[in-house]
Amino acid sequence: MPTNRNFEEWLSTFRASINGYDYYTDFEKVYENAKRFKRQIYLLNSLVCSENIEQEFEDLLMEYPECLKAIPILLAVRKLEIYCQDEHGALTYDFDKPNQSVEQYKYFMRETGLFDLLTNHIISNLYDYATGVEVGLDSNGRKNRGGHQMENLVEKFLIESGVTYHKEIYLADVEKRFGLDLSAISASGTSTKRFDFVVEAANKIFGIETNFYTSGGSKLNETARSYKMIAEESKNISGFEFVWITDGDGWKSARKNLKETFLVLDMLYNISDLEDGIFRELFDE
User: Fold this and answer.
1) Dihedral pair phi/psi, residue 92, rounded to 5°
2) If one looks up domain 7-17+142-283 in CATH, what number appears?
3) What is the pLDDT, as a whole number, of residue 242?
4) What contacts 257, CB < 8 A, 6 or more positions away?
5) Which of 55, 66, 72, 142 would be 77's cystine partner, CB 3.0–4.6 Å?
């Protein structure tokens, strides 16, 4: 393992991003969601450029009431119930099991601007429009996808190292499975902490935590302090090593707390360390 590391040099190798090509939009999910109400969307598509849209909407509902199910997605809402209020009162519209009169649904379409959208704006295909809405809604999933990117990256290096590893194991389960006493870092068994990875190698058990921060904030300082405590308390646990792998430019605004952990945790690494083969060096000892 590297010795006498320079913190500033190490920090200078941190990455601004690890976003992969599949981070921005999950098109498979987009297409799947858009297909849910494909038939109903195409029924509503008959209203595009209508010259008498309110009457045609009423006629459509009378013959095909199920087309209501497609309305929420036109407003970028996935739920089939929508609450609205104005000076006339408050209502919850059910688009799965109609609970309002046709006139009230017409009022909804009028007041939300959907009638205007269908008649006065350039939309030739509502299904294409709905697919575009789903792309926009999918952007909300980037946080979840981003949260897993670092874990996926670390796992790739674990696979390449050829070690036996386990994902997302609670500390109590690590104790039971490997016969370790981790009470020093488990608050005497009361902690619900979970390691991202646990590795069996070099006659030891390695508990690994991973994260990546693109921006700063109080959470980074809390994380650094928490892992510093674990690092210090795990030093006297026989047969166990704590490893923290982190990266991201967010740390540059929280360098003080990170440096404090860096000084007490030898096994604090970043992506550059992984690329330099730190896992092979660490687990082959």
Assistant:
1) -110, 115
2) 3.40.1350
3) 96
4) 220, 221, 224, 225, 228
5) 72
User: How many angstroms separate the CA atoms of 112 and 222, rounded?
Assistant: 44
Helices 255-264 and 218-234, packing angle to 10 deg: 10
Read out DSSP for 159-173? Answer: HHHT-EEEEEEEHHH
d(CA 99, CA 111): 18
Q: What is the pTM of this model?
A: 0.72
In Å, how far are 18, 90, 201, 280 from 285, measured between CA atoms?
Answer: 29, 68, 9, 9
> Is residue 186 scored above 90 in pLDDT?
no
d(CA 219, CA 12): 21
Phi-psi region of 126 (alpha: psi -120 to 50; beta: other; left: phi over 0): alpha
Question: Taking the domains of the chain in order of start, what are their residue ranges?
Answer: 7-17+142-283, 27-140
Mean pLDDT throughout 146-169?
91
User: Contact at 8 Å (CB) between 80 and 95?
Assistant: yes
What helix, strand, coil percent values describe the chain, rounded to 5?
Answer: 50, 15, 30
Query: Other CB atoms closer than 10 Å to residue 173's CB: what's the count?
Result: 14
Q: Is the distance from CB of 231 to CB of 207 less than 8 angstroms?
A: no
- The C-alpha atoms of residue 24 and residue 45 are separated, in whole angstroms, by 29
